[in-house]
Specification:
Elements (H helix, E strand, L loop, with lengths): L16 E3 L5 E3 H21 L6 H14 L4 E2 L6 E5 L23 E7 L1 E3 L2 E2 L2 E8 L2 E3 L5 H20 L6 H14 L2 E3 L34 E3 L2 E4 L6 E2 L2 E5 L5 E3 L1
Antiparallel strand pairs: 1-2, 3-6, 4-5, 5-8, 6-7, 8-9, 10-12, 11-14, 12-13, 14-15
Helix pairs in contact: 1-2, 3-4
Length: 255
């Protein structure tokens, strides 16, 4: 099994921090370690998916792999793996109301998997999408609708990076992102209308990338960007989530 990279600077042994505009230090390496586990779990889940797989079996496998990496806690409403597929791929609900169902993947499908691991008070938060063609999971689909969705998610993340600076307000990123989503002919599926949130040690402390939050992104150490979108009129929902921080030059960097 691949190993997640341990926290701490390998060369100096020093702890690496991101310092936000409020002067609060965040241990980047600890967060990077937990986030790297989520990414490794995603990579392993791809090969697990078969036509017989369901939301329930994928959730169960994700929890098993997380435990193999030493992760047995989640920060998100006791839902370590939030899996949606098929007729539910466009569904957006709170983790409080989520229960995995037993619809089979079949020959053609689209799956979103959102992992929320926690070690101590340190969070990871990572979502990925997987296409299924001819019964096989793939990150490089041939169907144009799948290819377009992946491309739009990639474009939205790239445009976000170019747009934001530490002084950018959460609400400004919300307005920018939703304008870009509509520009591409897609719609925001999030049940609260947001496209991300701050990374905290308590879920109730999160600041959201929505129309109401006037705080600056630089006032938090880490934030997510996770547009959940679909082509207008389509049945497939796409999602790709990363955690970001600002470097010393004020540029958003993927954790």
């Amino acid at each position: 099994m691949p190993k997640a990279e341990k926290s701490g600077d390998k060369e100096s042994g020093a702890t690496v921090h991101s310092i936000n505009t409020a002067g609060v230090k965040v241990n980047l390496e600890q967060h990077k370690y937990v986030q790297s586990i989520a990414k490794l779990v995603h990579a392993q889940l791809v090969s697990f998916i078969t036509p017989e797989a369901t939301e329930s079996t994928i959730v169960k496998k994700a929890i098993e792999i997380l435990a193999e990496f030493g992760v047995t806690e989640t920060w998100y409403h006791d839902v370590p793996a939030f899996v949606l597929l098929g007729s539910r791929s466009c569904l957006s609900i709170s983790g409080r109301d989520y229960f995995p169902e037993n619809e089979k993947v079949g020959q053609t499908n689209f799956i979103t998997i959102d992992l929320s691991p926690k070690i101590g008070e340190v969070w990871g938060d990572c979502a990925r999408s997987i296409a299924v063609e001819n019964g096989r999971p793939t990150l490089s689909p041939k169907q144009q609708e799948f290819l377009n969705g992946f491309a739009i998610e990639k474009a939205l993340h790239a445009e976000m990076i170019n747009f934001v600076r530490p002084q950018t307000k959460f609400c400004e990123l919300y307005e920018f992102s939703n304008t870009r989503i509509k520009h591409y002919g897609y719609e925001n599926l999030d049940f609260l209308g947001n496209v991300g949130h701050s990374i905290e040690s308590r879920a109730s402390d999160r600041r959201f990338v929505d129309s109401r939050c006037k705080e600056s992104l630089g006032d938090v150490g880490l934030f997510t960007f996770e547009p959940h979108i679909r082509k207008c009129g389509s049945k497939w929902g796409f999602k790709h989530e990363e955690i970001y921080y600002f470097d010393q030059d004020g540029r958003a960097i993927v954790l």
